[in-house]
Amino acid sequence: MRNQLVTYSPEATFSALADPTRRAVLDLLRKGRQPAGQIAQAFPISRPAISKHLRLLRRAQLVKEHREGRNRFYHLNPEPLRAVDSWLEQYRSFWSTSLANLKAFVEAEYAKEAAAPSNAPSRRRVDRATKRSPTKRKTRNVD
Fold first, then answer.
1. How confident is the model at residue 39 (pLDDT cuts 50, 70, 90)?
2. Is residue 123 part of a domain?
3. Angle of CA points 25, 44, 27, to nearest 5°
4. What confidence tens digit (pLDDT) does each residue in 85-100 have?
5. d(Cα 64, Cα 82) in Å, to the nearest integer?
6. Cβ(62)–Cβ(26) under 8 Å?
7. Domain containing 60: what range?
8. 94-130: per-residue pLDDT in tens?
9. pTM for this one?
10. Strand 63-68 vs strand 34-35: parallel, antiparallel, or unpaired?
11. C-beta separation of 63 from 32 below 8 A
C-alpha cells in the first residue's frame, strides 16, 4: 500500500455535521468501533436511513468502514474534525479576546459606580400620590 496524501474537504465535513442524526452517530462512534446494525438500533429511524447517513459520513471521511464477513463495522476518523477545529481556533481567539475586553469594561464600570457617593438620588420612580414604588403597590381584586 502506498502512502497517499489525504485532503479533507471542509465543505463535505460541515455538510455532514449539519445533520443532528449524523452528529449523534459520530457521538455513538466515539465509544469505539460498532457494527452497522448496532448503530441502526440506537435510532428510531429505519436501517436504510441510517445507511444513507453512514454513507454521507463515509464520503466526508468522518467514519471509516471495515468489513468482516457479512458485517460492516464503522469507526470514527478524527482527522477531518481536527481540520474543522483548527478552522474554528481563529474564532475562539476572537471571542476570548472580545469577552476579556467586555469583562474588563464591566469591572471598570462597576468600580466607578462603587466609588460614587452613596447619597446620590435613587433612580427608581416613586409614585407621588402614595409615596411608594410601582412594584410595591397593592392591588385589589374587583369581582
1. very high
2. no
3. 15
4. 888 888 888 888 899 9
5. 16
6. yes
7. 10-80
8. 888 899 999 999 999 999 888 887 665 555 565 565 5
9. 0.62
10. unpaired
11. no
